[in-house]
Amino acid sequence: MQENINQKNPIKIVLSFIPIILVVIFALQNSNNTIVKVFFWEINAPLVILFLLCFTIGLLFGLMAFFSSYKDAKRKNKIIEQLQQKIDSLENKSI
Q1: Cα Rg for the chain, rounded, in angstroms?
Q2: Among 34, 53, 51, which Cα is nearest to 43's?
């Protein structure tokens, strides 16, 4: 039984390599240099680096928005639980 837990399914291993292969193909097809002008600066970088940089920045902003709303929801749930406990205690006193 313990051996089955430690062994990975060969299909999962093959499927886990598919995104890696796709990223490598993407990088090879977009390796030509591109000039990006931002205000007074001029950046010359491979297109794949610019794509990955934009993706990473977008991912970071998305994570920040998610964690901000998650933290707010967690705080609201805590307040709801406290109010529910107060309601329950007041209902028990009146009975």
Answers
A1: 26
A2: 34
Angle, vertex CA 51, rays to CA 49 and CA 56, nearest 5: 90
What is the DSSP-derived secondary structure letter of residue 93?
H
Three-state secondary structure call for residue 45 = strand
* Containing structural domain, residue 6: 2-94
Query: How many domains, the chain?
Result: 1
5-59, pLDDT tens digit by residue?
Answer: 556 678 888 888 888 888 888 888 888 888 988 888 898 988 888 888 888 999 9
Question: Is pLDDT at 4 greater than 60 in this prediction?
Answer: no
DSSP string for 50-81 = HHHHHHHHHHHHHHHHHHHHHHHHHHHHHHHH
